[in-house]
Write a structure and sequence with these properties.
Strand content: under 5%
Number of helices: 6
Helix content: 55-70%
Shape: elongated
Distance between the termini: 72 Å
Order of helices and strands: HHHHHH
Radius of gyration: 24 Å
Structural class: mainly alpha
Length: about 120
């Protein structure tokens, strides 16, 4: 007959419950971030995500990723601080806050991207 030995996790729990919880939490965090990395990698390597026409719903970070330009270029073009402020704000919201048409911001971004790509090809 099979011996009634407790499983590894049960033995660990009996000996050190706090450390066992810490181990389980660490494994959960690792799994979460591994899944997030995998999904982000699959999303951004999709050719349909490259050079998506710039629209008002996009964030500066999305534009930088899609057009494969430095985030600092996009931030400087839009007049954003380097501290990450405005990272999640949309172009439409930025335009509304500044009282300018969103098309003006889009044109500025497209011009800056074209200059950057022309200088780095």
């Amino acid at each position: 007959m099979a011996e009634d030995r407790p499983t590894l996790i049960l033995r660990l729990w009996r000996r050190a419950p706090v450390l066992t919880l810490a181990l389980v939490a660490a494994l959960a965090f690792t799994a979460f971030f591994a899944a997030r990395l995998t999904l982000d990698t699959l999303y951004w390597t999709d050719p349909e995500r490259a050079d998506v026409p710039i629209q008002g719903w996009m964030t500066p970070r999305f534009v930088a990723h899609s057009w494969t330009v430095p985030p600092d270029l996009v931030a400087a073009t839009l007049g954003l601080e380097r501290d990450g402020e405005g990272r999640r704000v949309t172009l439409a919201k930025l335009a509304k806050e500044r009282g300018v048409p969103v098309d003006m911001l889009i044109t500025d971004l497209e011009t800056a991207i074209a200059i950057y790509r022309g200088a780095n090809e």
